[in-house]
Amino acid sequence: MNLSLAQRDDLTAVVALVRRYHAHDGLASPEPLEDAVAPLLGDNDLGRIWWIERDGARVGYAAVCFGYSLEFGGRDAFLDELFVLAEHRGVGVGGAAVDLLCREVEALGVRALHLEVAHGNEAGRAAYRRSGFTERDGYRLMSRRLR
Question: Which domains, from first to last, does the chain contain?
Fold first, then answer.
């Protein structure tokens, strides 16, 4: 199990997998999706996309976007999307990917990694807890779409 950084020439393959994830979760993809994905490919200050690889095959991806937090004392990041193909779920691939991802972003100077879990996704919550994530009692993620 390993991660590799998705590059600009991976755009078509990444977009295809992002579409699969969005369809799986019932999410509306921005159009053109390529415009949303491209800025995260390669070595980028906005964020990164990593391929999740198992036995030499790409079995998923993780998208991380960078920010900054006074509360956490520096650079933070948001695990925006994590997707593992169905046939590779339930065998620890996601958890191993999250653990590797934490090492990757920590090496980039990230002091805190945040994520969201859908209500009712108890398996996901349990997996993230096993990877060291804790819920922040008293806080609720809120969003406002600007465009």
Answer: 2-130 (3.40.630.30)
CB neighbours of 37 closer than 8 A, spacing ≥ 6? Answer: 11, 14, 15, 18, 49
Residues 6+ apart with CB under 8 A from 132: 102
User: Has residue 49 got a pLDDT over 90?
Assistant: yes
**32 vs 91: CA distance, rounded Å:** 34
Beta-carbon neighbour count of residue 40 at 10 Å? 19
Q: Is the model's pLDDT at 45 over the cut of 90?
A: yes
pTM over 0.85: yes
pLDDT of amino acid 144: 86
Which are the contacts of 105, defined by CB distance < 8 A and separation ≥ 6?
64, 77, 113
